[in-house]
Every structure is written in structure tokens, then in C-alpha cells.
Amino acid sequence: MSYRTMQGREVDMEKLMRQNELVPAVGNMKTNARGDQLGAGGKIIKKREEIVAEYYEANPKAAPRKGAGVGVQTTTIETPVPTNVPTAKSKKPQSEE
Predict the structure, then answer these.
(1) Residue 77 in domain
(2) Which domain holds residue 42?
């Protein structure tokens, strides 16, 4: 994911995320950018994978979708079928001349 700023500079967001994933997050949640739980001195107490595994053990109905990445939402858009379109059953036979 490389983006170009208004000033023409290239910013590689994936590289930036990887460089800062162990940096403590701003706020009062005591986590780093990956989602690991931090203790005193910024040491990792619980990894993100352990937290997610505990959640799914406690909530079996909330099983992750197969093939879906972390934080990826997929939506299905259903298009309505028009009701005024003639179907094969409603066609009248053509008269022969």
C-alpha cells in the first residue's frame, strides 16, 4: 500500500506499520500497535494471538469467517429482481401467418 501525498512524496503504509508495531499505543489501553497487552515498562504480557484465541474459546458462536483477514469486512450487495419484466412462463405464443 503505497500512497502519494499532496506534495508528491511516497508513503509506504505497510512498511510504516511494520516499523511501529511494537511501539506502545497512545491512550490508556496499555497495548502496542499490534494489539499485544503491555505491562509495566512496556513489556508484553499477552500476545494478540493469545487474546484472540481466548475470545473465541469463550464465544464459540463468534467463530471467524473462513478466508477473512483480521479487520476485513465483506459485504454482499443483493440486487432486487424487477417484477415487471416478462418471464418465459408469461410469454404468449406468437401467431403464425
Answers:
(1) no
(2) 2-62
